[in-house]
Amino acid sequence: AIDRIIAWEALDSRGTPTVACEVVLADGHRGQAVVPSGASTGAHEAVELRDGGRRYGGRGVRNAVNNVVTVLAEAVQGTDAADQAEVDRLLRETDGSADLARVGANAVLSVSIAAAIASAQAQGLPLYRAVAGAGAGEDVLLPMPMINVISGGAHAGRAIDIQDVLVVPIGATSFAEALELCWRVRAGTAEVAGERGLMSALVADEGGLGPALTSNRAALSLLVDGMLRAGVEPGVDASIAIDVAASQFFDGVHYHLAADERTLTADELVDELAGWSRDFPIVSLEDVLSEDDWSGWARATGVLGHVQLLGDDLFTTNPARLQRGVDSGTANAVLVKPNQIGTLTEAREVVRIAAAARYATVLSARSGETEDSWLADLAVGWRTGQIKVGSTMRSERTAKWNRLLRIEQELGGRARFATGEFG
Ligand code: PGA
Ligand code: ZN
């Protein structure tokens, strides 16, 4: 049972304050978690509690930390940490609001995850086994990564409008091989960009390149050239995924592709993306339209649904929003970010709804991350099939990749890599 909780204000990978906590069980086992934070956050996400005022430019989290050690600790004290649903129900009940704005989703998530880690410790199980639950069986699925190579939008000073151009190593047969293949593509892309005088020394928020490109399409052709330079065959060994993050350049009426000097309607943006997917080996498109344009998304699903059409800001890891999507046939895949909803139980519920509706699931880090590696265990334990963590560098990214490498190594022949995600 949960005995006590310790919490403190820590920093994330952007140097922004975040909530860290440690759950201590009565038997002495402990679990520690530090929560991540987004930059291009969706309007329907659960709310991070920030202090305002002068400390850390108003971004401090002392009030959230205080909520952890007072009301949240009081609520879950004595609860069996292995009963995640009950822990999370008590946390949510203590806040009482739908978006967790009272005690803060950052406060709630820190306890939810630390309790899961403490419980795994107490059971003597690796976290991925503990979160899989009873009846999960021995067969373990390592996720197909999508790895950021070129960044734009809110993560890289808006050199291009689309936020993320990623490589998907569809030809890899193990996680270790997948990671090396992506590393080679990143190196090849950096080399080509350097020769063309496009390279800047800057590294984007998720470790991606932020080259000085003059159009959105130029990012896609640069990535294809990078693959060729690396000896990686486009469309066979590796394909492209894009996070359009369209809400970021939507003014309420139009979409502004500043790099292309064009202003588009929703229909025109969908047609533009259809053109990109004809000309480039694209297998996944994320947030192709703004987060509340359900009718636009319906048309987009008709036009672009032959590739993976991924809802991030659209669904915000919210079971009700995903259910609305499933019922209306909107998109065909969901990005899962635990801090968008605030508890592991609800994030898990999103994975369950998606699996039942045959929507693909991509577990995702945030642009502001931490040194924690629990995201890797969740991807394996929940069998999400895919994971998105950023680039192959920066310790907050490699903490997750390194954990997946360790799990694959530890399982040996019992590890299965999710090769079938893209046909
Ligand atoms: P964020 O970006 O963490 O800044 O929201 C990640 C994404 O949009 O997928
Ligand atoms: Zn996104």
UniProtKB/TrEMBL annotation:
Its cofactor is Mg(2+). Binds a second Mg(2+) ion via substrate during catalysis. Gene3D superfamilies: Enolase-like C-terminal domain (3.20.20.120), Enolase-like, N-terminal domain (3.30.390.10). It catalyses: (2R)-2-phosphoglycerate = phosphoenolpyruvate + H2O. Pathway: Carbohydrate degradation; glycolysis; pyruvate from D-glyceraldehyde 3-phosphate: step 4/5. Its EC number is 4.2.1.11. It holds the Pfam family Enolase_N. SMART domains: Enolase_C, Enolase_N. Keywords: Cytoplasm, Glycolysis, Lyase, Magnesium, Metal-binding, Secreted. It comes from the Bacteria. It is found in: Cytoplasm; Secreted; Cell surface. The active site is at E206, K337. Residues 139-421 form the Enolase C-terminal TIM barrel domain. (2R)-2-phosphoglycerate binds at Q163, K337, R366, S367, K388. Residues 2-131 form the Enolase N-terminal domain. Mg(2+) binds at D243, E286, D312. Belongs to the enolase family. Catalyzes the reversible conversion of 2-phosphoglycerate (2-PG) into phosphoenolpyruvate (PEP). It is essential for the degradation of carbohydrates via glycolysis. PANTHER family: ENOLASE. This is Enolase. It comes from Leifsonella bigeumensis. The gene is eno_1.
